[in-house]
# Entry
Amino acid sequence: MWGKILPDLRIRKITLTNFRNISYAEIEIPGGKKEDMANGESSILGLYGQNGSGKSSLLMAIKALKAALMGEKFDYLEYASCIQDGADSARLEFEFSAYREKGSDYDIYYSFSIGIDDGEKEINPNDLFKNRMQKMIRSIRSKEKRIVIYDELLQYSEQPKKSKKANKQILIDTSDAACELSGKAFGNKTKYAQFTEGCSPDIDSILNEAKEEARYQSTSFIFSRDVINYIWHPKNESYHEVYFSLLTYGEANLFVVLMHETTTNLMTLSGWHNDEEEGGFGFKVVIDMLGHCEASDEEYLFVESAIPKISSVMSAVVPGMSIELEDLGKTVSDDGEKIHVFDLVSVRGERRIPLKYESEGIRRLISFISLIIAAYNDPTVTVAIDEIDSGLFEYMLGELLEIMKTSAKGQLIFTSHNLRPLEVLPRKNLLFTTNDPKRRFTKLEGISGNNNLRDCYFRMLKDNDSFYSSPDIKSIKDALSRAGEPV
# Structure
């Protein structure tokens, strides 16, 4: 899709407003600055705190970012609960560092609001799709509530090498105010003209329709497939590089593993396809460890080359164990295409068993080890893992994080209940949640380097109500006793 080498991207800062249980928070990611990338520093952030205090909210925000960049539908049931009680919307703001060894560096800023459409607005599809094959016969009145993504803002600031000045520019602004000034689907008018130069003469109506459809479909407008298809061309390269850097980052280099999703039994392998005509584009293969797997010829070749690499890491982490691919031959898909069918098996000596019969802890480790490999080796990759300690031996977790701290090229963001990482990661790489929704995240300050951070955190939990709402032990005992009484 973009035939040129794109810069490496890292998330530098996340700002959340009225998102889940966070009224307002600014989170700076250690190692996220361009100078950190130039110096080869790793970028790791661990989040700690009691249940329900906001740790997973940060990862959920990163998931929303990925959904927006990929043009995915924001599910109502999942994202309506992300808007804080009493608020009309939630605002998510992301800052990225874009670094390359040669040429200019720049910063990218992307933000959007999440709101709810009550479904009362009547939509006439003959107006909505008047220039498309998707015409419908009758108008629709949908009473279903839906999520809307609006007030999207894409900005960047370019900073040439050895220059201290960087001018922040608006590339795309979909706010009502900006659109009223420009009279277009987004503002400002000058950037709109530069983005759409050389496009179809009907580009104004096409983008207005795409904007309405994105609202109706609960997707980002800026990164909707329609916008991508219509505005891509080789002119205005600096603006398009910013745009496609984010697009590629979301599709191929940003991964989120949340505990409430069925990820324990899935393994995601990410790859990059190079095409002489279209340039490069990312793809991924998701493998179900509980059943037979299917893949196209291209996907199978990629899986066949990736599994030995994952197996070598698993053998180092779990001595005596390896993973192998078992080819079950070819079949015909529902679409009439020939596809490969295969299983993954664990091997311990002479013992070979399908992964579905392995322990949940092993499958959990396998499910994200390919992502850990990617974050270790690739400076363009960001991996966010919820409860990284789930099912993992405490000492092994500490060793993995220590390796990532010293040698990882990419970015790792995680939550954990296990406190072993507090003994291997520097304080700058750790954030702790509080009970204050206006100050949800904080660092532990005033602790000398000689003190054990784990012990200090335990003391904070015991002595500071802002870190931990201690339950009443007697009330718990009484409740347990009452619950055991005969009905």
Remarks:
- The two ends are 65 Å apart (CA to CA).
- Residues 297-317 form the longest helix (21 residues).
- The chain has a mean pLDDT of 82.
- Residues 480 and 486 are 12 Å apart (CA to CA).
